[in-house]
Automatic annotation (TrEMBL):
<protein>
    <recommendedName>
        <fullName>DUF2798 domain-containing protein</fullName>
    </recommendedName>
</protein>
<keyword id="KW-1133">Transmembrane helix</keyword>
<keyword id="KW-0812">Transmembrane</keyword>
<feature type="transmembrane region" description="Helical">
    <location>
        <begin position="41"/>
        <end position="61"/>
    </location>
</feature>
<feature type="transmembrane region" description="Helical">
    <location>
        <begin position="9"/>
        <end position="29"/>
    </location>
</feature>
<dbReference type="InterPro" id="IPR021529">
    <property type="entry name" value="DUF2798"/>
</dbReference>
<dbReference type="Pfam" id="PF11391">
    <property type="entry name" value="DUF2798"/>
</dbReference>
<feature type="transmembrane region" description="Helical">
    <location>
        <begin position="128"/>
        <end position="147"/>
    </location>
</feature>
<feature type="transmembrane region" description="Helical">
    <location>
        <begin position="82"/>
        <end position="108"/>
    </location>
</feature>
<keyword id="KW-0472">Membrane</keyword>
Length: 155
């Protein structure tokens, strides 16, 4: 895993691209009622803005808070790496999903209006299960493997 600030930045960029792109695809599929091939291309138009939002939120809010909370649950020196990764990942999802859902609600669902709060809550509730399973079973493992290959000599 990342061992310095440069590696942490590379890892975060990789994770944000994978998670944000997949979640955009998921949300477009929800909006259109089904998954279609055009969604893969359509999602690319939202990726730059949501990727920047995701990177900023993760770097400055979610990652520091998730690590701080995780290290109250697990001990890096004694617990297995799997438990540490799991704790950080779950807490990151718990923080990032509502924040990214709020950003998507404001940017892509009509901005601020009378129903903003209810739309945000609905978006978060619909996104949370997908974000959870995507992070734990697909994006997390994929990015860790790619990161280890891209940056040799990492744990």
């Amino acid at each position: 895993m990342p061992q310095n600030r440069r590696q942490e930045t590379i890892y975060t960029i990789m994770m944000v691209i994978v998670m944000v792109y997949a979640m955009i695809c998921y949300n477009i599929a929800l909006e259109t009622g089904s998954m279609k091939n055009f969604i893969f291309l359509a999602a690319l138009s939202e990726l730059p803005i949501m990727g920047v939002v995701g990177f900023i939120l993760d770097t400055f809010i979610a990652a520091p808070l998730a690590k701080k909370a995780a290290f109250k649950l697990v001990t890096p020196d004694t617990d297995k790496p799997f438990l540490i990764i799991l704790a950080i990942s779950v807490l990151s999802i718990w923080l990032m999903c509502p924040m990214m859902s709020l950003a998507a609600t404001i940017l892509f669902k009509g901005g601020f209006h009378q129903e903003t709060i209810s739309t945000w809550i609905q978006t978060t509730v619909l996104n949370f299960p997908m974000a959870f399973f995507l992070q734990l079973f697909i994006a997390g493992p994929l990015v860790r493997v790619l990161f280890k290959r891209l940056i040799p000599n990492t744990k």
